[in-house]
Amino acid sequence: MSLLALLGIDLPIIQAPMAGISSPAMAAAVSNAGGLGSIGVGATNAAGAGRMIAEIRERSNRSFNVNVFCHQPAKADAAVEAAWIERLRPQFDRFGAAPPRALIEIYKSFVEDDDMLAALVAERPKVVSFHFGIPPADRVQALRDAGIVLLGSATSPVEARALVAAGIDAVVAQGYEAGGHRGVFDPDAEDDRLGTLALTRLLARDLAVPVIAAGGIMDGAGIAAALRLGAGAAQLGTAFLACPESLADAGYRAALTSDAAHHTIMTRAISGRPARSLANGFTALGADIAPQEIPAYPIAYDAGKALNAAGKAAGETGFGAQWAGQGAPMARALGAAELVRVLAEEMHAVR
Predict the structure, then answer these.
(1) Which CATH superfamily is domain 3-73+108-249+328-350 in?
(2) 287: helix, strand or coil
(3) Phi, psi of 235 (to 5 degrees)
(4) How many angstroms separate the most distant Cα atoms in the chain?
(5) How many CA atoms lie within 13 A of 42 on its CB side?
(6) CA dist., res. 184 & res. 173, Å (int)
(7) How does pLDDT run across 139-158, given as a tens digit for each residue?
């Protein structure tokens, strides 16, 4: 079966599941236009995921993807967390705000979230995708038994082979160019930083399951190039940031159209995991900080979100999680459905 048939879509275009950014309205618009719309539920709970799924279904009867985070649960370290709060305190002082007294793990990983598993099995979206790793075998089997197609993100051939061995139906080849959180299974392990083209070709050559190229792809020419390398589809995230259905705030949108788009930076300082962001105040702050000084993900994110809120209240938007890939300067402010149409036209023009 082809990847498009497996996913139930018409076009080899997948809108990336950007947690906090990709809205149900965006996912529905992309799906209605023939692609695969996606939502990220890693930063919400089962009830929140249920509401998002219901909203998509009010707008569309097409396939869509629900993405969950499969990171290892955070290991708290009171000393590291206290030192991190003190490191950030001068920034909070600038905005006339106090930092959190303590940091908490702000959301559960899917690997231990029984309520989220039960909700997904009950809702049965066409597709569920994994980021940061693979859930336990019983969770994978429960989703498969519910008839759900499973995707998993890999940044290396080793991770890709582990996904295939676990029974994943297709692998998302996330290149180093990609915006947002790097999908590495172990954020403290050596990262070979493979680019999208090399990783896509390696996986398309070696895997027995379809490959989806992700990272730096912003237009139809990029999609066509990925398909020629053996990908069954391309996943685009940054390309959809400027869409009106995106939940990106005004500061984020302004940064996307500024010089910062030409200088994306991989940073751990915002959330505790490597993630590619537009250059901003937070990436500058984290430039010279050793990884071991930053609390575990998503505990560090508790501080990051608090600092962003304090900055925004004072009129400073440069401390947000302004995730974007290296293709950011090519972002277009089109409606999500219109963008899918344009991408398809561009793709067909060069194939």
Answers:
(1) Aldolase class I (3.20.20.70)
(2) coil
(3) -110, 125
(4) 58
(5) 29
(6) 11
(7) 999 999 999 999 999 999 99
* pLDDT tens figures, 30-66: 999 999 999 999 999 999 999 999 999 999 999 999 9
pLDDT tens across 286-297, in order?
A: 998 999 999 999
Cβ(65)–Cβ(17) below 8 Å? yes
C-alpha to C-alpha distances, 226 to 105, 263, 342, nearest whole angstrom: 37, 24, 17
The amino acid sitting at 129 is S
Q: Give the other-Cβ count within 10 Å of 127's Cβ.
A: 24
- Say how many CA atoms lie within 13 Å of 345 toward its Cβ: 6
Interatomic CA distance for residues 260 and 23, integer angstroms: 24
* Ranges for all domains in the chain classified under CATH 3.20.20.70: 3-73+108-249+328-350
DSSP state of 211: E
Burial class, 47, CB count within 10 angstroms (exposed 0-12 / middle 13-18 / buried 19+): exposed
pTM above 0.85, yes or no: yes
Q: Of 240, 205, 209, which Cα lies nearest the Cα of 26?
A: 240
Q: Which of 252, 243, 200, 211 is nearest to 341 (CA)?
A: 243
